[in-house]
Amino acid sequence: MLGAPIAHSRSPELHRAAYEVLGLDWEYDRREVRSGELADFFAGLDASWLGLSLTMPLKREVLPLLDSVDDLAALTGAANTVLFRGGKHGFNTDIGGIEAAFAERGVPQLETALILGGGATASSVLVALAHSGVSRATIAARSPEKSASLAELGARVGVQVALTRLGDEAAAADILVSTLPGEAPLPDLPAFAPSAALLDVAYDPWPSRLADGWTGPIVNGLDMLLHQALLQIRIFVGGSPAEPLPREEAVLRAMRAAVGG
User: Fold this and answer.
1) Per-10-residue mean pLDDT for the chain, 261 residues long?
2) Are the C-beta atoms of residues 164 and 139 closer than 8 Å to each other?
3) Residue 68 pairs with which residues in a beta bridge?
4) What are phi and psi of 233, to 5 degrees?
């Protein structure tokens, strides 16, 4: 697992639990790699490396280093998984992880969304929301002028995107999505309907400030992390996120138990 900061990541617990069930003698650890350091890290890898998981700020920086990317990584301009098998191949499992978490937590069909944050995770969120029926989304970012690509992505997936500055007044929606770090200050928010859904990618501490008192369906960062990690493990084992694992239900139970259910 590469990124910065990385010490808080629960991904090693998820992957190690899965590998134990699958009987795989594989190692999975955290490595702090900052922006601008990824190319040098790649250059130092040997043939023992099967793949990588990536988090902030590397999901976009990795693309020029890859030989191929899957359709979702190409669409979003962000890859969170690399497979070293006959080259360097990038995948985006965040979208599938969000969709699986929505299904598990009973998030209904959606039409409108308010998204806090305009980074690489927001691009995956936007595609997952489009697949869930969202046709209009407001993205509140610290620097909206740097997030024009999200409006272009929205147009490609059928979502009308309005970009605003984080902290500016915004309307309520069917779902509030926060891609902000757990410790980041929160802007003033509109009043959401009791049935509105919440996706908060933060998970430490939990419940987060947003989740505390929320009455509608809630998806947290661990839900998303769990399901995207399952897709990563499918890639590492079988080469494709669409290829189910042997004993996959047992694998998923072990992964869930490893991070507290």
Assistant:
1) 92 98 97 97 96 95 98 97 97 97 95 95 96 97 92 97 94 96 88 97 90 95 96 98 97 96 68
2) yes
3) 89
4) -65, -35
Q: Tens digit of pLDDT for each residue in 19-28?
A: 999 999 999 9
**What is the overall mean pLDDT for the chain?**
95
**Burial environment of residue 83 by CB neighbours within 10 A (0 to 12, 13 to 18, 19 or more):** buried
Number of domains forming the structure of the chain: 2
Going from the C-alpha of 37 to that of each of 1, 12, 48, 57, 207, the distances in angstroms are 14, 21, 20, 10, 33
User: Which range of residues forms the domain containing residue 116?
Assistant: 107-216
pTM across the whole model: 0.95
Cβ distance 84 to 50 under 8 Å? yes
CA angle 168-172-178, nearest 5°?
70
Same domain, 230 and 200: no
Query: What are 164's strand-pairing partners?
Result: 140
List residues bridging with 53 in a β-sheet.
81
Active site residues: 59
Token pair belonging to 53: 């998981």
What is the reported pLDDT for 183? 82
Return d(Cα 24, Cα 258) in angstroms, integer. Answer: 17
- In CATH, what number is assigned to the domain containing residue 63? 3.40.50.10860
Residue 50 within any structural domain of the chain: yes
For residue 19, give the H/E element and its range. helix 11-22
How far is it, in rounded angstroms, from Cα 133 to Cα 117? 21
In this structure, what CATH number is given to the domain that contains residue 159? 3.40.50.720
Nearest to 199 by CA among 119, 111, 128, 142: 128
